[in-house]
Every structure is written in structure tokens, then in C-alpha cells.
Amino acid sequence: MKKLLMGLFVFGILSFSFQANAYTLNDLFLQIKSLQKEVSQLQMKLKGTAFITDLPVLEVLDAINVDQTSAIIGVNVTSLGTPAATSLLKIYYGTTPHPTVNYVTHSQSLSVTAYQYKISSLSCGTKYYFYGMIDSTYSTDGTFTTYQCTGWVNPDIPVVTNPSTTSLTSNSVTINGTISSTVPVIKSSICFKKGSENYGCVPTSTPAISAFSFDLPGLVPNTTYSYFISVNNNLGYMGNSAEKTFTTLSSNSYDPSDPNNKPANYLSPKVEISSASLSSTSNTATVAGVVTDLGSIGSISERG
Questions:
Q1: What is the DSSP code (8-state) at residue 29?
Q2: CA distance 229 to 232
Q3: What is the C-alpha separation between 47 and 112, in angstroms, rounded?
Q4: DSSP β-bridge partners for residue 210
Q5: Of 142, 235, 259, 288, which cross-links 60 as Cys (Cβ 3.0–4.6 Å)?
Q6: What are the Cα distances from residue 31, in Å, to 9, 39, 41, 160, 237?
Q7: Is the Cβ–Cβ distance between 174 and 166 less than 8 Å?
Q8: Gap between the Cα atoms of 83 and 54, Å rounded
Q9: Distance from C-alpha of 246 to C-alpha of 174, rounded to nearest angstrom
Q10: How far is CA 142 from the centre of its chain?
């Protein structure tokens, strides 16, 4: 259509050039008005035919998972137009309205759906603008503001507190903690290591958002372990507890807090009285004894 209109325009100019001496300036103006009328009539005839296209339609989505330096932005493509657009979808973002420098792109074939992308390396405490564009058609600007640079804690990250151990034996332990999250938890793990080894994580059954407990078997006797609890929620955020340590018991010892958990070969310490009375009065006496065997524990923590 552009070529046709340009041809008409050039034709009009050529006509004028051949008759320039015959027409006054007013006549030239009338010629131009006449040509404009013909172009307008031609446009009306073409309206509704295949030469007129429907443009793509894009709607900006609200930014999500915004923190100090990143966010997820996107647009919803509700129509690809007629004929269907095949160009790249670009989502521009920046600190000024309708930015034109930084963008993410969808390079595959387009469809009528929502497109979302995570952008990083943003500045904290800053307002950003973003919009989607296909060909020369674009959505309106959306906005979001990254969180302040200091003193801010992301409320969407799950929190794991009170890591502790119970039921300690020579080869197992129970890990406990408390989980809080604004949304459901989808994954949890116990991460542990010996000495300077790298952490290894064992997935657990997905806990409720409350008290957490998990049995950890297969440990080495008389060994110090470091551990922490790791939790993921359905927003894609991960939270970890503080790092703690525990030391497994020797193979022939037991957890004193559980006297029913003594191994079959457990040996109690032995003590003998060395003197019935070293000194005495009418109502007091001093006695003495000797520990002759430390037993399975190998040390004495209390005596009396």
C-alpha cells in the first residue's frame, strides 16, 4: 500500500512539473488537495481487505519475587495479530520510562501465553520500568521498586530456627528444628559433614510449617559432625538454619538421656571404698573411694 501511495504522489508531482508554467500557486494547492482526496478514497476502498492487519496485543504482568537485586518480570501475549507475528518477543527494562537498552528475549516461536523472565544485577532501592514488544507493538509500562539496601529481610524466604539433636547413638541422631514460611514448603533436606569434608544433603519428607524432626542414620561412631537444615518453598526461595555440631557416641556407649538404650555389652563404671572413715565427729564422717574401672563410657562426669 505504501508503494501505491508513493506512486500516486510521484505521479502528481510529475504532473505538476510539466504544467508548472500554466498554473498559479493557488492552482497547485488545488491539485494537491485533489490528490489527497484520491488517496483518501483509495484508503477507504482498501479498508477491510488483506492489506489491513491486526497488530499483536500484549499486557504487562505484575513483577514478582522482587528483592534487593533481582525480580521476575513478564508480559501476557493475548493475541499474535493477523497474520500471526513471528518476530522476537523482547521485554525491556530500565530506570527510566519506556527503556530501550536492556532487555530479555524469547527467541523461539511465539504463542498466546504469558512469558516471564528473571532479571538480576539490579540496584537496591531503585524504581524500574519494563514493557514487552513484538515488532513495533508494545505493552504499556509496568513498574516495580527493588528493596532497600540495608536492614531488609525478604519475607518470602522460609526461616528455620532452633536446630537441635536428640536420640543420639553411635551411628544415628534425630535432627529437630522449627520452620516458618509465608507459603507452603515443597522440599527439605538435612545437610551434614565430617570434619573438613564438603556438605552432603539428604532429602526428607516435606514437613509442615511447624516443628520439624528427621532421623539421620548411617553415622560413624565417636565422630563430630556439622549440620544444618535446608528448606525450599513454592516461590522458589530457600532458607537454611544456623550450622550446629554433634558428636556420635562410641560403639559401646549410650545416650545417658535414654537409659533404656544401653547396648548389650555395656559395662558400668566400678568404684571401691578405700576407707570406712578418715575422720568423724558425733554427727559427721569423711569417707573415701577409688574408681577402679571407667566402664564403657571411658570417663567420669559425676561422682559423689
A1: H
A2: 10
A3: 26
A4: none
A5: 142
A6: 11, 12, 15, 82, 70
A7: yes
A8: 7
A9: 11
A10: 21
Which residues make beta-bridge pairs with 291?
271
Strand order in the sheet with 114-119: 57-60, 71-79, 114-119
Number of Cβ within 10 Å of residue 169's Cβ equals 19
Cell numbers 556439622: residue: 226
Is the separation of the CB atoms in 118 and 138 below 8 Å?
no
Quick: pLDDT tens for 142-188: 999 999 998 888 888 899 999 999 999 999 999 999 988 888 888 88
Q: Count the Cβ atoms, other than its own, within 10 Å of residue 173.
A: 25
Residues near 3 by Cβ (< 8 Å), separated by ≥ 6? none
Neighbours of 231 (CB within 10 A): 27
Q: Could you say which DSSP state residue 275 is in?
A: E
Whether residue 63 contacts residue 73, with contact meaning beta carbons closer than 8 Å, is answered with yes
pTM above 0.85, yes or no: no
For 50-68, letters b (16+ CB in 10 Å) and e give eeeeeebebebbebeebbb
Q: What's the Cα-to-Cα distance from 198 to each of 194, 220, 225, rounded to whole Å? A: 8, 16, 11
